[in-house]
Design goal:
Blueprint (H helix, E strand, L loop, with lengths): L5 E3 L1 H10 L3 E5 L3 H6 L6 E2 L16 E5 L4 H11 L5 E4 L15 H4 L2 H15 L1 H4 L4 H20 L3 H7 L5
Parallel strand pairs: 1-5, 2-3, 2-4, 4-5
Helix pairs in contact: 5-7
Amino acid sequence: MGTTYTDISFHELQAKLNKRENLKIFDVRTAKSFGRGHIKGSINVPYSAWSTIPRISAEEEVVIICYFGMASSRVSEQLAESHDKVFNFKGGMAQWQGEIETETIRHKWNTERIYTLVLGFLFLLSVPISFLNSWWGLSYSAIVAIVVLLSGITNHIFITKWIRSFGFK
């Protein structure tokens, strides 16, 4: 097997994609970055998961891509020890000039996140009711509503993590 890999430019990769060659593109960025935009048909295998190399047939050409080309060069080096046709996309996604594919919004809006947003809006509706009480009722309701809404919007649901720390699923 080979011990080196070849750097490949945007135009060279585009030519290979247009020819529909037997080509696999592995994106070694995080799943979140991959979801924001990736080359159509690429497979996400984060850099941290490259301790186990995915199955690749001998006749397949493999292109590795990351953010700027640093992590992909390390993965390409590792993969070149067991595979002959390894290419590192020079410059990473920062140099990609072609079309990108993004994950659809429905995958990002899971039931738990929607539940949190609805709960936040219900708390927000309770704010006018707190006007009937003293000023602390208004402050408490407003703070709870803002925290719940922000956790739903940012998808950082700390309450769920706290509940799961007690062993609940």
